[in-house]
Write a structure and sequence with these properties.
single chain; Methane Monooxygenase Hydroxylase, Chain G, domain 1; alpha/beta; 15 helices; 3 domains; FAD/NAD(P)-binding domain; 17% strand; 502 residues; globular; Flavocytochrome C3, Chain A, domain 1
């Protein structure tokens, strides 16, 4: 079969907040924007909480950076954190200029929420808990009217094309079954996280770690793959993905209780329900493992105002037959965000020339071992703009590529869904909220056996298995507990890891 060759200045893969921001911020370049779903797919649409930014007189970028560092458990890069917090107000202004709107109070001021790990109220939100929908809406509209962007929807990016040690494009499968190679002077991965590698996750079905797997196969440096954040309050209703119950609920006073009415977080941390996510997630996990059920009680904190203040959560609960105004909401932890990823600098450059990464697929050091709530959308906005500046300054035109460098991705392989389900179950049960050597070794053995029997052609199933191996191997190697990575056989942090990180 003939492979179509499509050339542009830059290829951006992914249409969440990071990919859309990056593409929009390069008006002087011809940008090819690829997504395997429809425009706006991925996790951004599902983000409820909001965007953290020091916009109030009681706040400052220094305070925001301090909270980010504290939650990151010592592994943050201070330069990345300073960049994030210091540019928050600027990117919010740019977002407003692109048509986004945030909740405004009767006084005409932005309504700010508070979430776990934040010392003050600094969370901008839309319609209470629909911030991701609004951010996606505004950026998608801007892309549709951007004359410099060529959009390819329902196009699966299969593998990077490397020629002479430089990334010069990628191979892909089109929605109509045709195969193509997209050639460019720069490739930017903005493919999001890895949540679907776990049986319990808040991430939508398309979040299968494709960018991370592609980068790893091409030889890019991957860092901190073991750090997976588990959101402590996903709705335990048997739905996949598990509906997220925004942390803003706890910020407004909702409490965690078990099935005998015990508010157990008071004994776990001085900030109780507003402790960092990893601490809350492990406390909920322990309660569940001991045979209890866990609930979020928002009857007093929100009560009758649920439909107005948290309409998304209210709808999700009602769809599961729960009235959160008068009933407890059953919750459980779920894989939510990946702090590890493709190692990049503040400019988004990876270890491979020609390859940049931005957003959740990247590891810039901004989150450290645990992400501060509502820093994820902000990361995509801040670093999307930064990557665009560097790409424009570093590239011009399409490189000449030898024919031998392009490998036909082939048709989509046939994959047994049971094998994918097995990987997801193994990851949840053995590489989840709490791990140890025995569980990790057992998981790696199972993953390796499944990997040997997968088709050679890259696809979502193969990417999931590859990511599972990366996460498990990294978790085995880190013989300490830090942030979102907790090993019951090494329950304390080992400060020698901090020296190695520096």
């Amino acid at each position: 079969m003939t492979i179509e060759r499509i050339a542009s200045d830059v290829v951006v893969v992914g249409t969440g907040v990071a990919g859309l921001t990056t593409a929009l911020s390069m008006p002087t370049r011809r940008v090819t924007l690829i997504t395997k779903t429809e425009l706006g797919g991925g996790s951004t649409w599902f983000a409820q909480g909001g965007i953290a930014a020091a916009v109030s007189r009681q706040d400052s970028p220094v305070l925001h950076a301090g909270d980010t560092m504290a939650v990151g458990a010592g592994l943050n890069d201070p330069r990345a954190v300073e960049t994030l917090a210091g540019n928050a107000v600027t990117v919010i202004r740019h977002l407003l200029e692109r048509g986004a709107r945030f909740d405004i109070g009767p006084d005409g001021e932005l309504v700010l929420g508070r979430e776990a790990g934040h010392s003050v109220r600094r969370i901008l939100h839309t319609d209470g808990d629909a911030t991701g929908v609004e951010v996606s809406r505004a950026l998608v509209a801007a892309i549709r009217s951007a004359g410099h962007v060529d959009l390819y929807e329902r196009t699966f990016a299969a593998d990077l094309v490397v020629d002479g040690g430089r990334v010069v494009g990628l191979t892909a499968r089109r929605a109509d079954g045709e195969r193509a190679v997209f050639l460019a002077g720069a490739v930017v991965l903005a493919t999001g996280g890895i949540g679907r590698v776990y049986a319990n996750t808040t991430n939508p079905p398309e979040v299968t770690g494709d960018g991370l797997a592609m980068a790893a196969r091409a030889g890019a440096r991957i860092i901190d793959a073991e750090f997976v954040q588990f959101h402590p309050t996903a709705l335990a209703s048997g739905v996949d993905p598990m509906p997220l119950l925004t942390e803003a609920l706890r910020g407004e006073g909702a409490m965690l209780v078990d099935d005998v009415g015990n508010r157990f977080m008071i004994g776990e941390h001085p900030d109780a329900e507003l402790a960092p996510r990893d601490i809350v997630a492990r406390a909920v996990w322990r309660r569940l493992r001991s045979g209890h059920r866990v609930f979020l009680d928002a009857r007093t904190a929100v009560g009758d105002s649920f439909p107005e203040r948290f309409p998304t959560v209210f709808r999700l609960c009602r769809e599961s037959g729960i009235d959160p105004r008068v009933e407890l909401i059953p919750v459980a932890p779920a894989a939510h965000f990946h702090m590890g990823g493709v190692a990049v600098g503040l400019d988004g450059r990876s270890s491979l020339p020609g390859l940049w990464a931005v957003g959740e697929v990247s590891r810039s050091g901004v989150h450290g071992a645990n992400r501060l709530a509502s820093n994820s959308l902000l990361e995509g906005l801040v670093f999307g703009e930064a990557v665009a500046v560097d790409v424009v300054a570093s590239t011009a035109g399409t490189p000449k590529v030898g024919v031998d460098a392009v490998v036909d991705p082939g048709p989509p392989p046939e994959v047994d869904p049971e094998r994918v389900g097995e990987v997801r179950r193994v990851m949840w049960e053995r590489v989840g909220v709490v791990r140890d050597d025995a569980s990790l070794q057992s998981a790696l053995e199972t993953i390796s056996g499944i990997e040997r029997n997968l088709p050679a052609a890259p696809d979502e199933a193969g990417n999931l298995v590859e990511v599972a191996r990366l996460v498990t191997t990294a978790a085995l190697a880190r013989t300490e507990s830090r942030g979102a990575h907790f090993r019951s056989d090494y329950p304390e942090p080992d400060e020698t890891y901090l020296a190695r990180a520096r």
